Amino acid sequence: MKVKSLCTCVVVGMLSLSLTCSVGAESLQNEQLINPSMTKSDNAFLSDIINSLDPEDRENVTYIDETGKVLVNKESLRQEVIPLEPVSQVTYKNSNSSLTSVTDTTYKNNRYKDSTGQLYTLPVLQPKPACMGNHSLTPMDFSTNSASFPECRDLRNGPYRSVWSHIGFAWASTRVHLPSAREIRDNNSGYNGSTGFIYMGGWSNTNMAVDVGLQHSTKYNDWAPFMLIEGVKEPYSFKPRFEPDQEVQMKFYVPSDGNIALTVSGYADGEKISRTYVEPAPGWTATGNGNLIKRTTSIGQIQGQQDYNDGSYIRKVRWATSYIGTNSEDNIPWRNSQTYDYCSMPRSKVVVDYVHGGEETDNIFLD
Hints:
Elements: H1 2-32, H2 40-52, E1 61-64, E2 70-72, E3 81-83, E4 85-86, E5 90-93, E6 99-102, H3 104-107, E7 111-113, E8 119-121, E9 160-165, E10 171-178, E11 184-185, E12 195-203, E13 209-217, E14 222-229, E15 236-238, E16 246-256, E17 259-268, E18 271-280, E19 292-300, E20 313-327, E21 330-333, E22 339-345, E23 350-356, E24 359-365
Parallel strand pairs: 1-18
Antiparallel strand pairs: 1-2, 3-15, 4-7, 5-6, 7-8, 9-19, 9-22, 10-16, 10-20, 11-20, 12-13, 12-19, 13-14, 14-15, 16-17, 17-18, 20-21, 20-24, 23-24
């Protein structure tokens, strides 16, 4: 009996030791995962994405794939993602107090709402070039086809100021001033949905357009990050919102072929933060081949409902300390020699304090 009892104790002890080791090994594996709340395959995929980013951009990373699946390196970041969906039909009262019904055809390009019903007017993705119509996934010969460049024209969705780089870059960084409450008025209570925007982006080797940056909120008087990518999925907005009247660091680049990244660093809710958003974008190349990068200040309006006299304005949007290149280790100051062209549309509403290709202060007045 004593021997049996001894053997039982040994077996139990061995089982306890085995279970302890097993639990310990599992805990160690979980600690090695980027985000234990995600599967190992998702962790492995996100690890590759993070490793492709600039080292300083890896702290808070959100990746959204073609299907809308969200991968984050911190689970708390998942709550910051705000999916947007097209608005089908809305009725507005215009300045003459008559009701104007806005159809799905009018709205489908740039009017969206979130799950709470809050409305968003986003930029309309500009084709490159104008004559192409529907975009093709076939890369163009940019060295010989002059029509591959954008044109300065009225997009019928609000005034804007854009600076376009030459083709061949994959990375751009800048500092930009976010206007204070006294420096912006976006009259989005009317039928045209005027909304202030400060953003980057451009076009890929396959002419696929990208607009990513910050959108002003009249309600909260702050700036929300947004991602708008042609032909992939519906756009996204994000929290936290960046405070007004500050200079933020904004970076747009191609960390790997077919993926684009936006990093914004500045103050939000009194705290200095940095957020990096990554999404797939067809045709964008990490070498810069065929890419054209832009910087834009605009007052976005509902397409086809633009009003260049609605009283909106955005002032003192200063872009400065701009760099451009192929990556964080291979870049130079963005100057005139790196710039293809500029566009102020319409010229009568846009006032620019120009210094050079990488520095200017934009003002738009709709009076």
